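Worked Example 4.2. Read the sequence first, then its structure tokens.
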Amino acid sequence: MNRALLKTRSVRVVIVDDHAILRDGLRALLESQPDLEVVGEAGNGRDAMKVVNETMPDVVVTDVTMPLTNGTDAIRVLKRRHPELKFVALTIHSTERYVRAALGSGADAYVLKDDSAKELLHAIRHVLQGHKVLSTGVSKAVVEGYLDGPSAPEGLLNGKLTHRECETLKLIAEGLRNKEIAAHLCVSVKTVEKHRANLMRKLDLHSGPALTAYAFENGITAKHA
């Protein structure tokens, strides 16, 4: 959407969050703006896909961690279906891995829930002009980490493991179950299962304890996630 279009009609927005009180607050905020119109809302990523297909909004404001289909997976799917659709991730999570997950899925902006209303409105309007927006609540270190690209133990990712596989391996070594890893990484359980299978295949290991031992032997620790 270009600036000329922004001046001719209201921007259509869908709100996605699993907390009804927060959705109500966002609706009140957005509908107080003369150029914004809330056309739908959903409480999880799965329902968001249905609402988006029915309402065809310009912008989706979505949390990233929700029950059923999470926000990052919903963004990834909807971005493929509707390439022009813009996504503003609105979340409590300020750590680098959540920023990476959201932007890697196709989010156009990343705003924290404790940022000001002004920051959110700025993000909504600017993504429609083709900009990427990271709110001031996202620390400089996180932003720089995203721009610099992923880091990992030397040699481990050199033609063997991806950064996300390395993250998964670390969490396996910490004793987390697939569902817990999925919540940590903002991905589906199915995606975690795929990462686990890839780890076993690439490392020629055949059990969780074997993966854990490999992680400790190769220094896969929290600093590498």
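Now turn to a second chain, presented in exactly the same format:
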Amino acid sequence: MIELAVLSREGKKVETLTVDESVLGGRVRFPLLKQAIVMYNANRRVGTAATKNKSLVEGSTRKLYRQKGTGNARAGQVRTHKRVGGGVAFAKVARDFGKEMPKKQRRLARDSAVLAKLLDQKVVVISELVFDRPKTKDFVEILGNLGITRSCLVAIRALDPNVYRSARNIPKVVVSPVADLNAGQICGHERMLFTKEALVSFLERTSTEN
């Protein structure tokens, strides 16, 4: 069992939560976790880089001059990559770098990522995170009270526009509903901040999925 302190917005302990490791798979599956991180980073790549090969460059395909008798070196068409303005040899083409994993493996990797953060004491739980209106200054103050000074993934139960807008201008801080959590996103941040409601919801969802 892992015991987590639930903190107030001021950083004071108000209660304790207990997390059963078995709900998160009981152990960290590092090979699966690596596979999920590779997939996450690959799917973020934009494979739109492309250059023109000789078939895409404007110009005639006619041989520039006859093969023999001119005293010049042999020459083919003007589009060749050996001439200025010609196409690119081995030109880049648009491609899809995307990878896939079965749904069950993605869930196990996500649970392993959360468990790894818990075991490394990189998870902070706050009693609530509610804003009447977007206020970045208040969000920064809360993070300071909780001792979060580096990159952080903030997990909330459902998308809250005020929370999202309060955090969007803070460098290396990302807000995500628990339903959208994934292993790559979790491992890409130093700390995790759960609201109490979000953590309970996440553990309940995980137990039913397994």
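Notes for the reader: The longest helix spans residues 103-119. Residues 46-96 form one domain.
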